[in-house]
């Protein structure tokens, strides 16, 4: 008999996956996930155990038994603790909900095509003439139940939602083209899913192409520490083609399997909460917002509060464009009734009536004002200043460098810097300048962005400033490492002090066609260095303070000139005169205790 996957065995024996994993734990059998394989002996042992337990009226197959036997019919004496719940309800009666899935990956690797294929084959077609509006999410019906797909592919949408503190996706599909393998945005997508702690499934797309090389993708995945199951790891990898549809059914199966293991539940009777997926203003209809119901049930006529605004649901449509009256957990619905377009990622709550909605808004406004006032007056606690004094501290970093070689060198050095009480967590190591996505990732994960030999664009720097993210660029690897050392020590900003370097007399002024006026000088004390600070005094008066932008000995540019030598000093200033005294100094970091 060949090896058997855990979930296949669970299915064959009518036991749910979680129970099967629990049994394996009890037997001390190690596995990576429910799709790991079991050897023949273990399979026989499990079969024997289940047969015994069933014969003794035990609980091994209880979940399956309850699903085939309505609880109402069960003997109360035989199963006193069993809930009178539906097949998919937990012990406390909270039913399962459909998984919400997001698709991420590098440009052109086939995210949209995959979504289109699923939509085409798994969403009930509208009647001829019916137009399904894009609402930001759709529900696919599969043989394993409903799966909800966020249909704005890419990690920007995912991270924008996360940046507002909301988590919508339960599972992330990382699409990688089989003819292209891992690309920069693939790495970013992986980092985003990891930062959100969302389980990942890798879809190797375009396997229909003659040049497709799925094996290479699997090997490349190991370079980012994602080890496919076939290689003994725990990453589910599904080869597929969004063009022919081959493998898509497998992907849907794995999504359902992952969802089952995640044990996703939500109570339709609980208080409503949801998240804005997207919104737009329609010229005729007005503001249309798509809300993902996360808990509770939404009904037409309900009052909704988003941030400091509220609205009443006038009409609601599902992702298929049908008018509906109510929507339960894991349902994306388009809502008409907001007066202003809410932003994606904003959390939505409901209120009993207009008065309650107004009160909720008023209390939020009050809370915000109090928080603002408190921020201004607050004294920091020791722990806030120093970081937690006991626990292991994590230094979250996003690294950006010009080449793969520099990235690897940096990661190698950083790995050696980890200590028992400090963990260095490189959330993303990417080639090229940092992106807006990096800033969002940094803001959700509390990370610092360190760039080596790449320059952030003005717009990215601006967003980082707005969000209060540390984004630093270095040309010298050891300066970057110094910064990491500082972060390890406890995020203490470096303290610099000005240190005197030397003094020079200006003996003649040389006019240079390109560089302006150069001070032909004689160093009377200490030394001068390029890029040092300069202070020029004329008589008793300081006439200039700035930087030494260039130093020349004869025709050569030099870094440093010592006492007793003549040199040309180029200041970023044109009014230097013979007889001026130039004093050079530099800012030196003061080592912190
Ligand atoms: N042969 C083949 N081509 C595919 C497959 N999936 C996608 N493509 C093609 O690859 C190209 C890119 O596909 P898209 O679905 O637009 O890729 P994307 O990842 O959504 O791209 P962006 O939206 O630009 O990020 C298109 O020309 C598709 O027709 C596939 O499975 N096989």
What topology emerges from the helices and strands here?
Elements: E1 4-5, H1 6-13, H2 17-27, E2 37-38, H3 40-55, H4 62-68, E3 100-105, H5 111-122, E4 137-142, E5 145-150, H6 155-163, E6 171-177, H7 184-195, E7 200-205, H8 214-223, E8 236-239, H9 248-262, E9 273-282, E10 286-295, E11 298-299, E12 303-306, E13 309-312, E14 315-318, E15 326-327, E16 331-336, E17 347-351, H10 354-377, H11 382-386, E18 393-401, H12 404-415, E19 422-431, H13 436-445, E20 448-452, H14 458-467, E21 471-474, H15 477-490, E22 495-512, E23 516-529, E24 533-538, E25 541-553, E26 556-557, E27 560-562, E28 566-571, E29 581-590
Parallel strand pairs: 3-5, 3-6, 6-7, 7-8, 18-19, 18-20, 20-21
Antiparallel strand pairs: 1-2, 4-5, 9-10, 9-17, 10-16, 11-15, 12-13, 12-17, 14-16, 22-23, 22-29, 23-27, 23-28, 24-25, 24-29, 25-26, 25-28
Helix pairs in contact: 1-2, 6-13, 7-13, 13-14
The structure holds guanosine-5'-triphosphate (GTP).
Guanosine-5'-triphosphate (GTP) binds next to α5.
């Amino acid at each position: 008999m060949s090896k058997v996957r855990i979930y296949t065995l669970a299915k064959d024996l009518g036991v749910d996956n979680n129970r099967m994993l629990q049994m394996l734990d009890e037997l001390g059998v190690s596995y990576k996930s429910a799709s790991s394989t079991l050897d023949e002996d273990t399979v026989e042992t499990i079969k024997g155990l289940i047969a015994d337990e069933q014969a003794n009226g035990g609980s091994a197959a209880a979940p399956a038994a309850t699903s085939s036997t309505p609880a109402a019919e069960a003997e109360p004496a035989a199963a006193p603790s069993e809930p009178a719940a539906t097949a998919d309800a937990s012990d406390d009666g909270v039913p399962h909900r459909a998984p919400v899935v997001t698709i991420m990956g590098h440009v052109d690797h086939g995210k949209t095509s995959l979504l289109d294929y699923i939509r085409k084959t798994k969403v009930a077609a509208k009647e001829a003439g019916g137009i399904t509006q894009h609402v930001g999410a759709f529900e696919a019906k599969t043989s394993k139940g409903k799966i909800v797909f966020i249909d704005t592919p890419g990690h920007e949408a995912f991270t924008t939602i996360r940046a507002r503190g909301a988590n919508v996706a339960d599972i992330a599909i990382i699409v990688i083209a089989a003819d292209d393998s891992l690309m920069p945005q693939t790495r970013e997508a992986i980092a985003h899913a990891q930062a959100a702690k969302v389980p990942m499934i890798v879809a190797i797309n375009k396997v229909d192409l003659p040049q497709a090389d799925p094996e290479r993708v699997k090997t490349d995945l190991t370079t980012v520490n994602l080890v496919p199951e076939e290689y003994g790891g725990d990453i589910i990898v599904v080869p597929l083609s969004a063009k022919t549809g081959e493998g898509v059914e497998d992907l849907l199966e794995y999504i359902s399997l992952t969802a089952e293991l995640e044990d996703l539940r939500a109570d339709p009777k609980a208080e409503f909460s949801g998240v804005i997926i997207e919104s737009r203003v329609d010229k005729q209809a007005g503001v249309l917002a798509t809300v993902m119901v996360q808990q509770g049930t939404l009904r037409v006529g309900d009052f909704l509060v988003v941030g400091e605004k509220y609205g009443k649901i006038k009409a609601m449509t599902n992702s298929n464009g049908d008018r509906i009256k109510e929507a339960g957990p894991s349902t994306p619905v388009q809502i008409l009734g907001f007066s202003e377009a809410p932003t994606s990622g904003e959390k939505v709550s409901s209120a009993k009536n207009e008065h309650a909605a107004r009160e909720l808004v008023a209390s939020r406004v009050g809370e915000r004002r109090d928080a603002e006032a408190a921020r201004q007056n607050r004294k920091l606690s020791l722990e806030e200043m120093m970081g937690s004094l006991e626990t292991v501290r994590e230094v979250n970093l996003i690294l950006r460098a010009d080449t793969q070689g520099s990235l690897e060198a940096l990661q190698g050095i950083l790995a050696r810097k980890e200590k028992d009480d400090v963990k260095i967590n490189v959330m993303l190591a990417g080639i090229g300048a940092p992106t807006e996505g990096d800033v969002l990732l940094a803001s959700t994960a509390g990370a610092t962005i360190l760039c080596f030999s790449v320059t952030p664009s003005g717009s990215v720097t601006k967003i980082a400033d707005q969000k209060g993210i540390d984004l630093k660029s270095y040309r010298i690897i050891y300066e970057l490492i110094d910064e990491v050392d500082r972060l390890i020590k406890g995020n203490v900003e470096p303290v610099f002090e000005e240190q005197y370097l030397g003094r020079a007399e200006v003996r003649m002024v040389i006019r240079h066609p390109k560089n302006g006026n150069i001070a032909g000088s004689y160093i009377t004390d200490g030394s001068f260095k390029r890029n040092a600070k300069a202070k020029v005094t004329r008589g008793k008066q300081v006439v200039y303070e700035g930087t030494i932008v260039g130093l020349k000995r004869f025709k050569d540019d030099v870094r440093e000139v010592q006492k007793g030598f003549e040199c040309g000093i180029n200041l970023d200033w044109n009014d230097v005169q013979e007889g001026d005294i130039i004093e050079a100094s530099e800012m030196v970091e003061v080592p912190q205790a």
